[in-house]
Design brief:
By secondary structure, this protein is an alpha+beta fold. Helix content is 51%, strand content 7%. Strands 6-8-9-12 form a four-stranded mixed beta sheet. Strands 1-2-3 form a three-stranded antiparallel beta sheet. A hairpin with a 2-residue loop joins strand 2 and strand 3. Helix 7 packs across helix 23, helix 14 runs parallel beside helix 23 and helix 19 packs antiparallel against helix 20. 51% of the residues are buried. The N terminus and C terminus are likely disordered. Belongs to the chloride channel (TC 2.A.49) family. Keywords: CBS domain, Chloride, Endosome, Ion transport, Membrane, Transmembrane, Transmembrane helix, Transport. One of its GO terms (cellular component) is plasma membrane.
């Protein structure tokens, strides 16, 4: 019952999920234009943007509006539920069979067959190239704008701080990041970099640039693409489960998200770009699908491409192609066949190669915080690693509850009506509190890189501010230095890190969910990395001063490099990210790809698994599932067990108090009667039965196909009038002499709709919905149509049953 407390699921009304408590409200007008209202901004998405080719209604049969009016206007806003995914698969197999048969007849047909087979791989190649190029551009632009808050390169304003000082010969070992070519804003305006005035000028310019970037980001999102806000992963998960939102993966969303992601990250807000990069990659895939007919006209095939695109997004975000594929398989995808696995791997490889070719960080690495540790870990250290896992689980559970509570406040109060003001206030608060502390002033990825770093002789970081001792003349195990006593610089850094930990934990709660692109990977990893570094330094000093104790005797001798604080930071980052997202296998692989060390898999696995167990004890939903519940998306979590003992007859509609099910008979109805039925209802489709008396199920016809067929028949077929008989049988009865010709619509009837019996247990029905990606199916008894059951009905039933049963602890479920 985790997450079922959402009011949108408690309501027993039919509209409880249609008008869900979300920032996204879809309004279907008579002219079939989609008006999306997000936080007061209204945007019209044209039909050229992210057009689901098979769409003709909502995710359940009952429509909430008259999008499919009698004018026969084309598809509605969401993918048609009955043509997807399995009928789409069936059509694709039929298409393959036809191409294979024709390929034996001529050389041209053979070339067409080869081209069709190669098109999927070509599409993956294009997705990888486009996503990698965009990710590289985002990394370069974000690094440049982040540095611009602190100063300017006199050689060329387009250089960031590091690139500006690359060719300088006037840098020193202690101040390697300072060179005459780069000047702070205080030096540019006042001519000096020292003193209270210089500090005030730098402080003020830091805030001004941060507010400017945040204002541009939220304004662009609000004005041009409201769907570009947030992480995008909850919506991608919902889309891959069969719920397509028009415009969410369109070209305007891609353009605005790419631009505003750079601005949001550069503003210094506690957010990351990794989650939004998954959204960006999926937008690229969706747009490129329109170049290939078999993907443009088949939503099931497009969904496989989106699964691969999610892997591409993580691949370019972390430089972890294998971890990206596992992330898509474990966390995002609803349906992941073996063919999609291969293509995901290929696309992630191409994207990683493209990003490596661009080399956005100038270090020949795919990510900013690539590190390699050389000292081995010891069995005794599993205890601290498990402690970090416990901390990550507690932090994840606390963060999810706090963030969801804050998002509810945002939705239910006047705060939600002022997204621009909220973003500016949070940005100002973040900037004012972050600037005095060097570890909160720097970007999230740069902070993680600093915390992951293993100190060497050439490091001038405060985290490497150890006292010099006689034992440091010789190196320890591997390439690391021997453990040393902490100096004044290190103690000062630890105090700053402790303050940064408290600040990051609090500010991330109110930042995630604002109307700007915001990822959660980097902030979560930063919290864990800070906690891990603090614990690692503590263990290092404990080993240095107590190397003769029973715990350290035998493996930590004086002058040896026993403890690696950077490794603790890495394990802490994985633990906190796992506690927030509930990732396990993919998270370990991602962290392994970041560090390149096979020997650290066991610490990562121990911390990640402990984090998940601890977090699951307080609630089994990750942050993305919690936001799906909060927004009321029709999503059946595949990881949850169905705990109810009911039958489909208990859940299906119509119920006793509902009007009878609207059906079409296979013969006997006139065009006028069919039009009246369509006009008086808002359903996306109608069951076809033998007669009103028998209700023997024949098939299912879509509202869209019905309207288009009648409209075309009136224009092209002579004699079709309102009194014409509509026939869904193969052989129509002979009409009377004075009767108008009948309208034969056998071709638009789906003769194999998904059905279950009224005695089918609901746990089996839920598995069918999950594994086949259904949003509705018909309920029969001995071939007689009784009703329909939708994903919305299942979610409402689960929510109502959770309220009636006594609340169990998550570990008891």
């Amino acid at each position: 019952c985790a997450g079922m407390e959402n009011p949108g699921y408690r309501s027993g009304s039919v509209d409880s999920l249609r008008h869900r408590p979300s920032d996204v409200v879809v309004e279907d007008d008579d002219d079939d234009d989609e008006m999306v209202d997000i936080a007061g901004a209204t945007l019209d998405f044209s039909n050229t943007d992210d057009d689901p080719p098979l769409g003709s209604g909502e995710y359940f049969v009952e429509r909430g509006s008259r999008a499919g009016s009698m004018s026969g206007a084309g598809p509605g806003r969401l993918v048609d539920p009955l043509e997807d995914p399995l009928p789409g698969k069936s059509k694709d197999r039929d298409r393959h069979r036809e191409i294979a048969n024709k390929s034996r007849q001529s050389t041209v047909a053979l070339l067409h067959s080869v081209s069709d087979a190669f098109s999927g791989w070509l599409l993956m190649l294009l997705v990888g190239l486009m996503s990698g190029a965009l990710a590289g551009g985002i990394d370069i632009a974000a690094h440049w704008l982040t540095d611009m808050k602190e100063g300017l390169c006199l050689v060329g304003f387009w250089f960031n701080h590091e690139h500006c000082c690359w060719t300088s010969n006037e840098t020193t070992f202690q101040e390697r990041d300072r060179c005459p070519q780069w000047q702070s804003w205080a030096e540019i305006m006042t001519g000096t970099s020292e003193g209270a005035l210089a500090y005030f000028v730098n402080y003020l310019m830091f805030l001004v640039w941060a507010l400017l970037f945040a204002l541009l980001a939220v304004t662009l999102v609000r004005a041009f693409a409201p769907y570009a806000c947030g992480s995008g992963i909850p919506e991608i998960k919902t889309i891959l489960s069969g719920f397509i939102i028009r415009g969410y993966l369109g070209k305007w969303t891609l353009i605005i998200k790419t631009i505003t992601l750079v601005l949001a990250v550069s503003s210094g807000l506690s957010l990351g770009k990794e989650g939004p990069l998954v959204h960006v990659a999926c937008c690229c895939a969706n747009i490129l699908c329109h170049l290939f007919t078999k993907y443009r006209k088949n939503e099931a095939k497009r969904r496989e491409v989106l699964s691969a695109a999610a892997a591409v997004g993580v691949s370019v975000a972390f430089g972890a192609p294998i971890g990206g594929v596992l992330f898509s398989l474990e966390e995002v995808s609803y349906y992941f066949p073996l063919k999609t696995l291969w293509r995901s791997f290929f696309a992630a490889l191409v994207a990683a190669f493209t990003l490596r070719s661009i080399n956005p960080f100038g270090n020949s690495r795919l990510v900013l915080f690539y590190v390699e540790f050389h000292a081995p870990w010891h069995l005794v250290e599993l205890g601290p690693f498990i402690l970090l896992g416990i901390f990550g689980g507690l932090w994840g559970a606390l963060f999810i509850r706090a963030n969801i509570a804050w998002c509810r406040i945002r939705k239910s109060t006047r705060l939600g009506h002022y997204p621009v003001t909220e973003v500016l206030v949070v940005t100002a608060l973040t900037g004012m509190l972050a600037y005095p502390n060097s570890y909160t002033r720097m970007g999230g990825a740069e902070l993680i890189s600093e915390l992951f770093n293993d100190c060497s002789l050439l490091d001038s970081s405060q985290l490497c501010g150890y006292k010099q001792s006689n034992s440091t003349s010789g190196a320890g195990v591997g390439n690391g230095l021997a453990d040393r006593p902490a100096g004044v610089g290190l103690y000062a850094a630890l105090w700053q890190l402790a303050l940064a930990l408290v600040f990051k934990m609090m500010i991330t709660v109110i930042t995630f969910g604002m109307k700007v692109p915001s990822g959660l990977f980097i902030p979560s990893m930063a919290v864990g990395a800070i906690a891990g570094r603090l614990l690692g330094v503590g263990m290092e000093q404990l080993a240095y001063y107590n190397h003769d104790s029973a715990i350290f005797r035998g493996w930590c001798s004086p002058g040896a490099d026993c403890i690696t604080p950077g490794l603790y930071a890495m394990v802490g980052a994985a633990a906190c990210l796992g506690g927030v997202t509930r990732m396990t296998v993919s998270l370990v692989v991602i962290m392994f790809e970041l560090t390149g060390g096979l020997e650290y898999i066991v610490p990562l696995m121990a911390a990640t698994m402990t984090s998940k167990w601890v977090a699951d004890a307080f609630g089994r939903e990750g942050i993305y599932e919690a936001h799906i519940r909060l927004n009321g998306y029709p999503f059946l979590e595949p990881k949850e067990e169905f705990q109810h003992s009911s039958l489909t007859a208990d859940v299906m509609r119509p119920r006793r108090s509902d009007p009878p099910l609207a059906v079409l008979t296979q013969e006997g109805m006139t065009v006028e009667e069919v039009e009246a039925l369509v006009e008086s209802t808002h359903y996306s489709g109608f069951p076809v039965v033998v007669s009103q008396d028998s209700h023997r199920l024949v098939g299912f016809v879509l509202r869209r196909d019905l309207l288009i067929s009648i409209d075309n028949a009136r224009k092209r077929q002579e004699g079709v009038v309102g009194a014409s008989q509509v026939v869904f049988t193969e052989h129509s009865p002979a009409p009377a002499d004075d009767a108008p010709p009948p309208l034969r619509l056998r071709g638009i009837v789906d003769l194999s709709p998904f059905t279950v019996t009224d005695h089918t247990p609901m746990d089996i029905t839920v598995d069918i919905f999950r594994k086949l990606g259904l949003r509705q199916c018909l309920v029969t008894h001995n071939g007689k149509l009784l009703g329909i059951i939708t994903k919305k009905d299942i979610l409402k039933h689960m929510a109502n049953d959770c309220q009636q049963r006594p609340r169990l602890h998550p570990l008891q479920l």
